[in-house]
């Protein structure tokens, strides 16, 4: 099943590469990451998504090395405007910086790590609210003019910001978290994408592992796992949230698929202009996820899955207050 991503044609399900190097605890071994990436290519994945932030550049190096033999056959996306900066103590710190000179430097650094001459889709990872969106997007447009980038995108922005950015330079893609338990894009971003013709790219379509047959055990999360700081995974509400996950599993069982496949099927059913980029560190999960693109779900099954996550079913915001303040959201936070 092919769908449009800006000027490219890609599979409806791509691969989000973040968790090969970042976010959910210690990074997996390089050899395992390369195996997952090669397995994705062998399974027909044509869209791979990384970022300067992931592993503070290590993910781009991994992706670039593993995918170099097939670079001309895939659509490669990365992100800048949020990257690691080394402090005086030598430690790396995540910094949001949307100044034109920083965006140019981030892109050049990404190209070097990827071992590539051009990035197919380059996103502004976060809007730096100290910098007018037109300035950041204008700098990204300059990267296209220089032949370093083929198309530009935005991440975690509101519908109003999409429209302002698109007026400065055509936005080909918008990437935000979107799944059965995170419906924020429906408050304006999806509509703005449809007005401008941008593709909507759903990251974390499996709810950071929650919408699968094996939701995370929050008591056993690694000390560096970012879910520890996410209110929805807080121990005081998580057990209650799991009731919704168990209900989703019942709906999936009746549909003769896995919860992950049903969750991905629901996301893809939102429109032909929506694509999903689940991430995984395991080849078996990769194959399970990709199989969802070939499944057909009737309206009753999709409605039943959606009803599980009706208003009030999930407690807790998806981000803590500090991170929530960094994104450009239509609503403070909301599930369905």
Describe this protein's structure.
By secondary structure, this protein is α/β, with parallel strands linked by helices. 37% of the residues lie in helices and 17% in strands. It has 11 helices and 12 strands. The strands form 3 sheets. The protein has an 8-stranded parallel β-sheet. Strands 1-2 form a two-stranded antiparallel ribbon. α3 packs across α4, α4 packs across α5 and α7 packs antiparallel against α10. The longest helix has 20 residues. The protein is globular and about 50 Å long. The two termini are 27 Å apart.
Write the SSE topology.
Blueprint: E1 2-5, E2 8-11, E3 15-16, H1 30-42, E4 47-49, H2 58-67, E5 75-80, E6 82-86, E7 92-96, H3 100-114, E8 119-124, H4 133-145, E9 149-155, H5 159-168, E10 173-177, H6 189-196, E11 199-203, H7 235-254, H8 259-268, E12 274-277, H9 283-291, H10 299-308, H11 321-326
Parallel strand pairs: 3-4, 4-5, 5-8, 8-9, 9-10, 10-11, 11-12
Antiparallel strand pairs: 1-2, 6-7
């Amino acid at each position: 099943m092919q769908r449009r991503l800006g000027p490219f044609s890609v599979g409806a399900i791509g691969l989000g590469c973040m968790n090969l190097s970042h976010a959910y605890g210690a990074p997996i071994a390089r050899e395992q990451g390369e195996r997952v990436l090669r397995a994705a290519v062998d399974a027909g994945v044509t869209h791979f998504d990384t970022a300067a932030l992931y592993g503070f550049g290590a993910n781009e190096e991994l992706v670039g090395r593993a995918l170099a033999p097939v670079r001309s056959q895939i659509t490669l996306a990365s992100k800048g405007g949020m990257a690691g900066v080394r402090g005086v103590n030598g430690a790396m710190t995540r910094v949001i910086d949307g100044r034109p000179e920083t965006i140019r430097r981030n892109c050049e650094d990404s190209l070097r790590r990827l071992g590539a001459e051009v990035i197919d889709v380059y996103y502004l990872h976060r809007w730096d609210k100290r910098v007018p969106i037109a300035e950041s997007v204008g700098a990204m447009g300059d990267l296209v003019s220089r032949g370093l980038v083929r198309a530009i995108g935005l991440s975690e922005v509101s519908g109003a910001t999409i429209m302002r950015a698109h007026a400065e330079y055509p936005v080909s893609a918008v990437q935000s978290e979107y799944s059965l338990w995170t419906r924020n894009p429906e408050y304006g971003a999806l509509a703005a994408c449809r007005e401008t013709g941008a593709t909507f790219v759903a990251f974390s379509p499996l709810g950071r592992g929650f919408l699968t047959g094996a939701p995370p055990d929050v008591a056993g999360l690694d000390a560096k796992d970012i879910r520890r700081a996410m209110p929805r995974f807080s121990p005081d509400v998580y057990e209650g949230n799991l009731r919704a996950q168990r209900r989703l599993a019942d709906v999936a069982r009746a549909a003769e698929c896995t919860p992950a496949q049903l969750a991905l099927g629901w996301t893809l059913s939102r429109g032909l202009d929506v694509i999903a980029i689940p991430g995984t560190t395991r080849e078996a999960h990769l194959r399970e996820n990709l199989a969802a693109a070939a499944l057909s779900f009737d309206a009753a099954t999709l409605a039943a899955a959606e009803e599980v996550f009706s208003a009030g079913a999930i407690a807790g915001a998806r981000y803590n207050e500090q991170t929530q303040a960094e994104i450009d959201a239509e609503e403070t936070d909301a599930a369905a």
